[in-house]
């Protein structure tokens, strides 16, 4: 499908906070009650519209477990947006945010937009982290913030779309160099007729051509 | 594998990879329809979006088997795309469980006289009571890796079809293989009553053979070579490679099938692992931490003598531009008449010869190690496809120097006990270029030792771990691995196959 821009996102945060569920809710509008530990990286994609423009989100869902940390770190590169997720019912996942943030800042490009997400807002009775704490953390570190529920889908759309809006604004402001793919942004085929690699079906014809 | 067909000498090579008309009278093929569209291995079950994500040359995501998908024997698999040398990942993989049924009686096979079939019901009835196998049906497990170069077409086609060719070859010999007690007959159909009476006393067998023999006096039994069953399987694998290559050659006229590929195939059949290798991928078995190499690479250096001999016997294949002799470096005009070190196909050592004009030609094999090339073009000497590959800007074909025949090695799996950490590791050269057998063994062994033995994902996680260690991480000066060594910028694909399931199955 044709798009004006493609944004690469990465979802990070401790294991079990609901990263894969957020992605699934956003792409498939489904909730997955059992925890399928992510053991590497998984991908999702969806088209959204911002300012009348079609934008394709390419989302990388990473493994939160400590033992996969070095692999996860290697995927920050070239992401335009990051969803940094904690679980409002588990304070330790909130406490680990600083480490995640350091990791992200160190391994990604400096313009990456980071959305802080307090997930599982449906579990109000088990809440361990106040909403205000999340807001304060976000303010302190210059992040956008939202509480979501991958279960009820509350704020899930908004989390992904608001991140995209922020990236889009940065493009308008000229902060992002959109011709540098290391920024996690690609221009769609109709906007850059010469850029054939974005057309989707990367056929064997192209393979035969090589690229260097 | 793109780099493997890049020239050691820039002036000689370049255009052929684009399938450009500069290198041939035949149409480039780019206008023809695709035989199979580009994709990642079928068992990964990736959507088009996922395939797109995976082709990120900057982040190089390691693709693994999804938690919901399982391969036979809980086989682990991981792969990663190259660092930018080709637009797509030119490695391919296939893993399947195959059934070999005896060919239906309707199909005509010239070497099987019809007389044979009339005796079948007995034989089949016998087999049924003897073993669990049903009506002349055998099964095998199949794992394969293909490393494409100069395009992904041949690798994709081979990854879809080679197993079918193996089935076809084995179909011919199902009856024979089902009778392990009896050596394969020299002439099919001749000693046929044997298939129905494998336990027949030797004297009787001989008598019946004598009776059927057209020349009863000749003591042919005593001079005949005894061919083992496993040799028949090896022959079937070898011929499957040959027919696969022939199919690519035939169909490239009607389809766009680009490039060529190496092929590394593992077949578990009747209790044995057969490892067939044509190219520079590699398989090793790790058993109790010990390494058993199951393949050898075929490169310009390892096959130098075969190639030189061919160039010597058929000099026209060198187009008057290459010499089959090897020199330590290129000969210069001013050195004509002097004595210089050289070696021919008859030598592994070196000697001096007086340099003649002919020796000024470019050497058939040139370069060292990973940079060694045949005809200044290709760095791997066995595999499938490459029928249109020519030396740049010339009419010299590379294919005659390439062999599609695999070397087959056997591991008698069921004769050994295997623990949960005993595995077979298969990898394309992207892995082995940067990690030694010992390093891979150490990584795999220590990773598995730290896993929950009941976790069915452990072999996939181990595969992901070694791919990660071979890829490394992107630093200021490129991809780096342990000790700041250069990581592999090539496509990397790895299977880790636990062997204990082979014991359980038998
Ligand atoms: N009640 C509730 N449960 C949730 C929500 N989001 C996720 N869960 C549950 O939390 C568990 C973990 O969710 P996942 O999405 O698999 O966690 P993850 O962050 O991907 O974990 P890793 O893959 O290990 O990094 C699952 O059992 C989900 O059902 C939510 O919004 N509300
Ligand atoms: Mg997950």
UniProtKB/TrEMBL annotation, chain A:
Membrane topology, record value: Lipid-anchor
Q: What is its main location?
A: cytoplasm
Q: What would be an example GO MF term here?
A: GTPase activity
Pfam families in alphabetical order: Ras
Q: Where in the cell is it found?
A: Cytoplasmic vesicle, Secretory vesicle, Acrosome; Endoplasmic reticulum membrane; Golgi apparatus membrane
* GO CC terms: acrosomal vesicle; endoplasmic reticulum membrane; Golgi membrane
A single GO BP term for this record reads: protein transport
> What keywords tag this UniProt record?
ER-Golgi transport, Golgi apparatus, GTP-binding, Lipoprotein, Membrane, Nucleotide-binding, Prenylation, Protein transport, Transport
Magnesium recorded as keyword: no
PANTHER family from the xrefs? DRAB11-RELATED
UniProt similarity note: Belongs to the small GTPase superfamily. Rab family.
Q: Return the protein name.
A: Ras-related protein Rab-2A
What lineage is on file?
Answer: Eukaryota, Metazoa, Chordata, Craniata, Vertebrata
From TrEMBL, chain B:
Q: Where is the signal peptide?
A: none
Chain spans, region Disordered: 108-129
Tell me where in this chain the PPM-type phosphatase domain is found: 114-499
Keyword Nuclease assigned: no
Q: Where do transmembrane segments lie in this chain? A: 253-275
PANTHER family this protein is in?
PROTEIN PHOSPHATASE 1H, PROTEIN PHOSPHATASE 2C
**Protein name per Swiss-Prot or TrEMBL:** PPM-type phosphatase domain-containing protein
Organism equals Silurus meridionalis
**What phylogenetic lineage does the species belong to?**
Eukaryota, Metazoa, Chordata, Craniata, Vertebrata
